């Protein structure tokens, strides 16, 4: 790379000498290619939004309008479906339950994953690589494999149908994920910082809480986003481990299909409401998310 | 980074180890125990030895589900990886547009999986769904509850809709890490767009692409909720994938022994594939480090 | 613990695995492993070779159980030989 030019203007000059196309022509071509990529991106985003828009559209209609005629937007705008959900405790408790176990899971996971990730990023110890691989296999283990033993395990320890049971079960894949992401972020913090802090007389816990955690703030934010995401979207385990008291919203949604047909409006409204927390969370981490998606490793 | 050799690090790992073991090892042991017995009730079970394994390995329905699963996983990888790279290349790099596009693109990833199924169930219905209705207006005989091909295509479309954002985001973050100087050098050499992609962007992407392939393969291999809600595995069993066969057997029919044996076979396949991927990633990183040191 | 429906063979199986892990740890403390390259395409440590050996043993067993009428003890014997070969020359 020794021949590379740092300065764009030099390159521009070089180009005008040797290139047959004039700068003006080239600029025009660039503008055209940028326009083309914007249009392509726009088409993709439009197609992507369409199914979600359709859900939103249906949630604002009455069932008779949904089934009666094809309308591209709600002609008789109604919020009855939402009002129905927010006034029925068996409905909105589903959201409370889901949010409760997701938050518990995030708290438990981050508390045990932070020290473990630190150990993996700073020390080598007997069996470290194998332990790390074993963790990753849990990330890949299909929950269907564990369904029945889970039911019996949590039943026998008396945790069945509690929020904490789902929170603990989701640790199976969330802890390995958190360690994987956090380890990437921690490894990019130079080791000299640890050593200086120890020389300055910091004890390990004090150093960890006062200095190290603030330094990887954005990494922790991104990790929490991922924990939220995977715990929020999972249903198979949550459904198996709960009955009535801690039922997740995804399970309550199945009630909309009854013998007399499916209550489409309520189903759509409930679906829209499950998307909202995600939008809120992604808004908070939007600036760090790109790095987090590469698991802190770019 | 040179790591310090210190076995006291185990103390830091211990809390995590206890929690994950509780969730992973105890159930796994139970599955192994089930797999060699005919479990009829809490205190009534008979030792059957390897019989369940033999039955499961030779079950034509499961073999079909396995082949369908492989076909599905490779199809969606073949679509999502190139599409994800393409989208990452045209995403805006900075400013409010970048944030807005990021938030929009991540949206499908944050929807509960069964809701994804519901969205597509509504969207593809012939009477009330925009896509189903639209296709019928155009004269296409589209029906996912009767036609297996339609159901297949719809599930693939749904998965592409749901998971391409993950690949795109991974690639986007890989592209953001390329220094501007590389592009300037390419401009001076009057490199074509293809050459820039082939010799600058793609090599930088390999790392994240391996992560993307790994995550996508694993998740598609355990896909359950979306096809279950959308098609229920049908019509017939044309869209029944491995997880669903397993869940039907274990929960629906209460066949603990056979489903446990099946789980173990499934798990061993996953273990093999993840080990191959993991070793590849680790060796790639090692190569890169040794090159950097030289 | 009764819901875990333990049987003698599975108990022996898990004890053997646990004993192997313990043994490997002790061996590692007594004489730390050196990464080397044998006939496997990647360079491996002792633990890696044990893992490869166990995983391939599992598939050997599955193959014998599912698609042949040979005795499972034959599969076990073959796996043990393969494991030793792998540990020594892998």
Automatic annotation (TrEMBL), chain A:
Asked if Flavoprotein is a keyword of the record, the answer is no
Q: Which domain of life is it from?
A: Bacteria
Coiled coil (residue ranges): none
Q: What is its main location?
A: membrane
Where is each ABC transmembrane type-1 domain found? 95-285
Entry keyword annotation includes Glycoprotein: no
Q: Where in the cell is it found?
A: Cell membrane
What CDD domains does the entry give? TM_PBP2
UniProt cross-references to Pfam families, sorted A to Z: BPD_transp_1
Membrane topology label: Multi-pass membrane protein
GO biological process terms, alphabetically, are:
transmembrane transport
Q: Which InterPro entries match?
A: BP-dep_ABC_trans_perm (IPR050901), MetI-like (IPR000515), MetI-like_sf (IPR035906)
TM spans (from-to): 35-56, 99-120, 132-151, 163-186, 207-233, 264-285
* GO cellular component terms attached to this protein's record: plasma membrane
Assigned keywords, A-Z: Cell membrane, Membrane, Transmembrane, Transmembrane helix, Transport
Return the similarity comment: Belongs to the binding-protein-dependent transport system permease family. MalFG subfamily.
Q: What is this protein called?
A: Carbohydrate ABC transporter membrane protein 2, CUT1 family (TC 3.A.1.1.-)
From TrEMBL, chain B:
Determine if Oxidoreductase is one of this entry's keywords: no
Keywords (alphabetical) are: Membrane, Transmembrane, Transmembrane helix, Transport
What's the protein's topology in the membrane? Multi-pass membrane protein
- Give the transmembrane ranges: 12-36, 66-89, 101-123, 151-175, 196-218, 259-278
The record's principal subcellular location, in a coarse class, is membrane
Entry-linked InterPro entries:
MetI-like, MetI-like_sf, Sugar_ABC_transporter
**What are its GO cellular component terms?**
plasma membrane
CDD domains named among the record's database cross-references: TM_PBP2
What GO terms in the biological process aspect are recorded for it? transmembrane transport
Q: Which Pfam families match?
A: BPD_transp_1
The chain positions of domain ABC transmembrane type-1 read: 66-277
SUPFAM superfamilies documented for this protein: MetI-like
Q: Any idea where this protein resides?
A: Cell membrane
The yes or no answer to whether the keyword Cell division is present is: no
Question: Which protein family is it in?
Answer: Belongs to the binding-protein-dependent transport system permease family.
Question: What protein does this entry describe?
Answer: Glycerol transport system permease protein
Q: Which organism is it from?
A: Vreelandella arcis
Organism placement in taxonomy = Bacteria, Pseudomonadati, Pseudomonadota, Gammaproteobacteria, Oceanospirillales
UniProtKB/TrEMBL annotation, chain C:
Note whether Transmembrane occurs among the keywords.
yes
Determine if Membrane is one of this entry's keywords: yes
- What residue intervals traverse the membrane? 6-30, 72-89
**Record's keyword terms, sorted:** Membrane, Transmembrane, Transmembrane helix
What domain of life? Bacteria
Tell me what this protein is called: Predicted small integral membrane protein
Q: What is the lineage of its organism?
A: Bacteria, Pseudomonadati, Pseudomonadota, Gammaproteobacteria, Oceanospirillales
